[in-house]
Amino acid sequence: MKKIYTLLLLSISISYSAQIEGSWSLNPSAGALGVGPDSANTSWWSSDAGAVTTRDCLFDDSIVFNSNGTYDHYMDGATWLESWQAGSPTEGCGVPIAPHDGGNNTYTFANGILTVSGVGAHVGLAKVHNGGEDGAPVNDQIDYHVTFSGSNSEVMTIDISFPNPGGTNGLGWWRYIYLKNGAAPPPPPPSHTVTFNVHTDLIAGNVSADGIRIAGGFVSGSPGDGLQLDDSDGDGIWSGSTSLPATGGHFTILNGNCSDWSCKEDISGQSCADANNYNDRNNLLGGFSQDTTLNLQYGSCTTPSTGIDELVNSFSIYPNPSNGMITIQASNTINTVNIYNMIGNLVMVKNISNNQSNLNIENLTNGVYFMELTLSNGSILNSKFIKK
């Protein structure tokens, strides 16, 4: 029996090893690189389709896992550099900097865990390791979680956690998606059309001669590549549409075209600001499943169409979060309840005529919602709740 078990374990080990052996490069499409608050969530930042060109020196790097437990990292004279590296280079393509300049190192792969060992050994971005984002892993060793997909296991998804207080359980997660060299690229992730309507009446002074743009996050990596909005009718509402990955992400609004982000709106401390991502907007974090219209106020989290802002709890909602029924209770009779999603769309209305009522939110998509109560005395109360 012991021999049978030994043979079975050897067979499993060989199967795992065979899956990873071969030459791999980053998948040349949007979403090949991303980071977020938990595994499979790249809402903090995700590479767009343009990154395949702007970071071509990274996408053409290849990693070859050999059957003898060694792997070769080929950079062909150029790779992606960042300011944390020796000499503080400008972020962009450049000559690889030791010790993260490729070469031959060792690896093990078993039970879905890839461990690379050696000075400068890494997969994906050189800075990321299990202890942080400074390119200095403990004992020159990094562990990655690996899964395969595709009819011939030609797509390799690599996840790695690192300490980040903004993530689940104090961890952030980077994700890299590799394609086996010679394999046909997988279909791109689904996308939907997002229409941005930006109200500019809160801008101090005038709108820049370069107009209003949507940029950053999963929209564009640089201000100049952002979505240019239009106000041809002169009503102060700048509009434009683009197709964006359904996985969602953060973004910001620019008053002008500034290469240093100095014309970015300031919404720090407000409800729609993502403090973990440069105080960009979080309106589309968590993804979306259909074509979407966002009505936004430059410099504010107020939704122009509804007047919803950072809302103050003036009545009771419990349990909160909830996955089914919630109870609302106010000191006066509640006439109506309106529920809005994060982008200001009205998703539920209920007439009550009582100071307490139960609402079934089972059919709402998981996320953050705003509740607006109209009381019999004319008061309007607002608060937030979470459907989980």
Structure characteristics:
mainly beta, Immunoglobulin-like, 3 helices, globular, disordered N terminus
Overview of this protein structure:
The protein is mainly beta. Helices cover 7% and strands 42% of the residues. An 8-stranded antiparallel β-barrel has the order 1-4-5-8-9-10-11-12. It has a 5-stranded antiparallel β-sheet with strand order 15-14-17-19-18, with no helix packed on it. Strands 21, 22, 23, 24 and 25 form a 5-stranded antiparallel β-sheet that branches. Strand 22 and strand 23 form a beta hairpin.
At the fold tier of CATH, the topology name of the largest domain is Lipocalin
Architecture of the largest domain in CATH? Answer: Beta Barrel
Count of extended strands: 25
- What average pLDDT do the residues reach? 86
Q: Which class best fits the helix and strand makeup?
A: mainly beta
What is the N-to-C order of secondary-structure elements (H for helix, E for strand)? HEEEHHEEEEEEEEEEEEEEEEEEEEEE
How much of the sequence lies in strands comes to 35-45%
Record the SSE blueprint.
Blueprint (H helix, E strand, L loop, with lengths): L1 H19 L1 E5 L6 E4 L8 E2 L4 H4 L1 H4 L2 E4 L4 E5 L4 E3 L10 E3 L8 E8 L2 E5 L23 E9 L5 E9 L7 E10 L10 E9 L12 E4 L11 E2 L8 E9 L3 E7 L17 E2 L5 E5 L7 E6 L18 E3 L6 E16 L5 E15 L6 E9 L4 E8 L1
Parallel strand pairs: 13-20
Antiparallel strand pairs: 1-4, 1-12, 2-3, 2-12, 4-5, 5-8, 6-7, 8-9, 9-10, 10-11, 11-12, 13-16, 14-15, 14-17, 17-19, 18-19, 21-22, 22-23, 22-24, 24-25
